[in-house]
Amino acid sequence: MLEIRNIEAGIEGKQILKGINLAIKAGEVHAIMGPNGSGKSTLASVLAGREEYQVSGGEVSFNGKDLLEMSPEDRAREGVFLAFQYPVEIPGVSTTNFMRTSINEIRKYRGLPDLDSSTFLKLMKEKMAYVEIDQKLLSRSLNEGFSGGEKKRNEIFQMAMLEPKLAILDETDSGLDIDALRIVANGVNRLKNSENAFLIITHYQRLLDYIVPDFVHVLYNGKIVKSGGKELALELEEKGYDWIKNLEPANA
Amino acid sequence: MAEETELLEELTQGDYKYGFVTNIEEDSLPPGLNEDVVRLISLKKNEPEWLLQWRLKAFRHWLQMEKPHWQNVTFPEINYQDIIYYSAPKQKVQLNSLDEVDPELLKTFEKLGIPINEQKMLTGVAVDVVFDSISVATTFKEKLNEMGVIFCSMSEAVKNHPDLIKKYLGSVVPFTDNYFAALNSAVFSDGSFVFIPKGVRCPMELSTYFRINAQNSGQFERTLIVAEDDSYVSYLEGCTAPKRDENQLHAAVVELVTLDNAEIKYSTVQNWYPGDKDGKGGIYNFVTKRGNCLGNNSKISWTQVETGSAITWKYPSVVLKGDNSVGEFYSVAVTNNYQQADTGTKMIHVGKNTSSRIVSKGISAGFSQNTYRGQVKVNKRATGARNFSQCDSLLMGDKCGAHTFPYIEVDNPTAQVAHEATTSKIGADQLFYCNQRGISTESAVALIVNGYCKEVLNHLPMEFAVEAQKLLAISLEGSVG
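^ inputs. structure came back:
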């Protein structure tokens, strides 16, 4: 589904990613771990197409298409979803209205007609249950005055609504208490199927207690230095990040 | 050779001229303004002597006045002798239905997307169409008649309800008020008159579409709405104008009067030609709008969405004379390219326990200048007056300007006056967030702007709000990215 080949990228002239290789197949859950500043969020931003980041080398193909050639909105329409580390506030625009606009623009791209109101509402009701989110929250201005947990739950709710092929979770666990963490993880687990894939970016191992990854990759200094199964996450939790600093980049 | 060039010019210009301007025979006065012109306007409209005298007084007063220069707008000096002060579509007989309307005229409405017939059937809105200076069609009259509601053109009102006009015309905005109000009083062409009798709640939204059509003819509209005790009316004013290459002056006067427990809700969506991308052309919109809450417990509410005009200069105001009366002002003013807007409101607290609320949302894009100018005045005897003002500015790009001038004058110690102001920008992170959800940048801007204006748009009648949302999106097209 996603193939990242030797990607190099940076911001404001500073190189952060120094040759990343990663292949994700449908049905897989990949976790990317690493210390602060290792380039985890940069990778998420590059995949989603954030303008401030410049890609200086390498390529990314998504279902056979050149992802880096696409505008951010077309990437989303092709099925790439980013759950933001810091969800953005949009005053006066409710989540409901936002989702409706989003779904209909994506449908238009795929040559489908607008979703009628009753179908949309039915879909909302169904997905609200995934993350135990309240209707009232969805009527409020998007992310404005939301608690940290509400923001993250709202991201997962949006993910559930859009049913992406590839979902990137950028530190979704940061700032969550254990109950919110469990709710968010449950939502992800319900959405997981053989057709989609997840790329979970996290600093800590604890989210991976709830969402079990098929592969764990350790990012350090802009490179993947080690890849392994879920047990690698536990090893990192136990030993911390210091020991990986001496590792040679893994050959993908 | 010279002849050929002339012919060529005529042909090419002719193409433009008939491309969008309705080709109707017009009964126009030559450009220029003097006492004879004022007399002629009055004569053409078969007006009574008292009205002619009133016009003449206004004209003589206007001659003495200085042109205002305090606004935060700049434009070339207007030559008032170049303007045509009267033009009316030629009509032989008084019209009773749309079938009798000149088909050319109906075509223009079609081009503008104002299908009158559909309007009538689908929305239940009575539409009083003002085309240039003369009302050509008035609908739903019978139903309103039954309830005693008067909704007609100003000329008809002068003819059929002279006592009411004599009593209220100029009672809120006297001709001495300002330069443009004086000019309007001297040469006003037509407009709308609404009278809601005691105890009547007008069952439908009353709506007028204004159109400026005749080249060079400034439009001097006069609107008067009187709501008697315990009555209610919601009035909609919507404007469109065809593309023009030269500036056109529009100086309307709107007067509202509410008696005890009456309420008037006045909504405007203004979309006049703002000039092209380089700031050429466009309408000058210099309007005086004021309401007088004469009665106790009465209420006047102005809601406006201003997207058009090259220059907008208007301050819909409320004089809160009656005890416990309420004044409201909800405004969205959008400026793009080289547009200039100096707009806001005045809330004058005179009666006891009067309250006012101001919510102003300015949006500036391109090279435009957007100014909020508001005055809250609490008189000595206005015990217990309350005001809340919120003035927000949204900037798009870094070539535009937003300015806020709130004037607060309080002469009573019991008054409570609160003013809040914010300035914000559409952030790159907001746009990226929308993009990441598959929303194009254009749609994202529309979404964010509509969210920003929501509090104001919520005060518009439903069908008007939808129209206004689309208008905001169109006005800001291409301003980001």
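The longest strand of chain B covers residues 283-293. Chain B has 13 helices and 23 strands.
thumbs up if we can close this ticket
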